[in-house]
Amino acid sequence: MNMSLDQIVAGIQELKKERNAVIVAHTYQQGEVQEIADKTGDSYALSKFVSNVEEDVIVFCGVRFMAESAKLLSPDKTVLLPVEAAGCPMANMVTGEDVRMMKKKHPNAAAVCYINSTAEVKAECDVCVTSSNALKVISSIKEKDIIFVPDRNLGSYIAKQIPEKNIILWDGYCIVHEALKEKDILKWKQLRPDATVLAHPECNTGVLNHADFIGSTKAIIDYVVSGPDQKAYIIATEKGVEHPIKKVKPNVELFFPSSCLLCVNMKKTGPIDVYNALNEMKHEILLGDEIIKKARRSLERMLELS
Ligand code: 13P
Ligand code: SF4
Fold this sequence. Notes:
The protein is α/β, with parallel strands linked by helices. It is built from 15 helices and 12 strands.
C-alpha cells in the first residue's frame, strides 16, 4: 500500500506510543525526517540526549556509528537504525587493530577517537570526542602525545590550537567535506564578498583557512540563527543544516559552495523507513557485552570531560 506523507507521519505517532519510542535525527537528515524527530542536533547533542532517555526504544535517524553510540550509552534500550546500509565511510577508515598497532608504536600516548568510528575502535581508545567538544576534551588530557583517529582534518585543526600537544594523526577523512576544495570557497567569496564563511572542521586546511567561523553543525546553525545579524553565508558543511536554519530565518541567503555537500548515507533515511523501523522493530543495533563494556568507557569519559 502506498501511504501519503500525512499517513506515514500519523502512523509513526501511533507506533511511537505503542512501542514507547523516541525518535532522534542528526541535522544532516532529510528535512522531513528532522520534522518527525523528537530531538535533532549534532553528534554531541544527540549523544547527551540518548544517554538520558526514558523511552524503551530509540530510533536513530543518522548513520550506523551514531546508533551504535546510542546503544553504548544506553545498553538497556532497543536502538533501531531505520536503514541498515546507512554507514559512514570515514568510520570504516580505521580498525581496532590499527589503533592497537598505533598504541604499540606510541606507548606513552593517549588514544582518542572521533565519535565517527566503530564500536571496536572506541573500545581501544581512552576517550571519544565530537567536533563540538574535541578541543575541550583533548586539552584536558594529561598526556602530551595523543593518537587521534580517524579524521586527519579535525585532528590537524585541533593540533594547531594546542601546540603543547603532539597529535599523531591517522589518515582518515570525511568523503563529503574532503571533496570541497579551496577553489570552491575562493570562487564563492569572489561572487559574494559580503557573505560570512562558516565551515565544519571536517573540511581540509585549504577550506578552513578562509573560514570566518569554524564549528560543529550545531555551532554553524546557532551562528546563523543567533549570531551577528547578517544576510548571506557561505556554508562549508553538509546541506542538511539548511532546514533548521531556514525554519528560524527564512530570509537569510545560504550558499553551499559545491554540489558535493550532500552525504548520501545521511540522506538514505526517509519517513517511510522510520515507519517501517517502528512497525517491524528493525534494524536493531546488537553489540556484544564485552565490546559494550569497553567502548562505553570512552563515550562516558567524553561526557564527563565536556
Ligand atoms: P557533528 O555532528 O559533530 O557536527 O559532525 C558532523 C558529522 O559528520 C556527522 O557525521
Ligand atoms: Fe560520515 Fe561525512 Fe557523512 Fe558525516 S558527512 S556521516 S562524516 S561521510
